[in-house]
Write a structure and sequence with these properties.
This protein has 284 residues and is mostly helical. It is 51% helix and 4% strand.
Length: 284
């Protein structure tokens, strides 16, 4: 065996062992046909399969196929999604839009090529390969979600950081017939054993061949964001502010022909003659 084939052989052997550990690995988005799988996968962006599975039964009860969903008001679809999902307005717009394109361009059927799928609203390469792999058994690449990205790095299969380059690395290590199950098995292992935080290395069945075993906490994860401290200056006290304002309002000097008169707690500036007259009248 050549040196070039050694990493490929080791990766394939590790994958074989993982398949034994997770014989039940499957897509956990509930669906009965390619259309429902496509819609559910679009809805799963930035959320969990569990939440998607809570909303799709009601969604498909009202709009069971592409033709029904294509005629649905976007506002009504978004209102239903809002009960469980974030980004409900955009997701509602996407699934109604993709249903319309399925009807207009594909007779209401889900196309079987990546090039056609990615033309649909809300469908990227990852979503397209989920549908191609799970519904048709013909993926055109490996689905790289956060679990696949994390585990492929922890297992030493790639040092790449971006999903598109990770996908190329995995496609080079594994034959096309493994691409669909590869992502499903890694997702299962990531959800049940190799957690993002505190991976259960002691319970992992491949820890003897994992280069990150027992030190995997920070491998395959985004570095924590640096938080910038915000210093808020305290507001000046009211008494101090009032005293300062009084000082500014009171003149430091008076004109030569004026005098400061204080009476009853009030202070005013008056001409000298007027002040003297008031003083004399006050005695009588």
């Amino acid at each position: 065996m050549t040196a070039t084939n050694q990493p490929r052989a080791r990766a394939q052997e590790t994958f074989r062992r993982l398949r034994v550990i997770h014989p039940d690995a499957h897509c956990e988005l509930d669906h009965v046909d390619p259309f429902q799988l496509l819609v559910a996968t679009v809805l799963s962006a930035q959320t969990t399969d569990v939440l998607v599975n809570q909303i799709t039964p009601r969604l498909f009860a009202r709009w069971p196929d592409a033709r029904a969903l294509a005629s649905a008001p976007v506002a009504e679809v978004a209102a239903l999604l809002r009960e469980r999902l974030g980004m409900f307005n955009q997701k509602g717009k996407n699934i109604v839009g993709l249903a319309k394109k399925l009807v207009e361009k594909h007779g209401g059927e889900v196309p079987r090529t990546l090039a056609e799928l990615v033309e649909l609203p809300g469908v990227g390469r990852k979503t397209a390969n989920v549908v191609l792999g799970v519904a048709f058994g013909r993926p055109e690449g490996v689905v790289v979600d956060t679990h696949v990205q994390r585990l492929s790095q922890r297992l030493g299969w790639t040092t790449e950081q971006k999903p598109e380059t990770i996908e190329k690395a995995l496609c080079a290590l594994f034959p096309p017939e493994d691409w669909n199950m590869l992502s499903l098995v890694l997702i299962f292992h990531g959800r049940r054993v190799c957690f993002a935080k505190k991976p259960a290395c002691a319970a992992c069945g491949v820890n003897d061949v994992c280069p990150s075993a027992f030190a995997a906490e920070n491998v395959g994860r985004k570095p924590p964001r640096k938080r910038t401290a915000v210093v808020i200056e305290p507001a000046p006290k009211k008494k101090a502010a009032a005293k300062k304002a009084t000082k500014k309002a009171t003149p430091k000097k008076t004109a030569a022909n004026t005098v400061v008169v204080k009476r009853g707690g009030a202070t005013r500036i008056a001409p000298k003659k007027a002040a003297a007259k008031g003083k004399g009248s006050g005695r009588g």
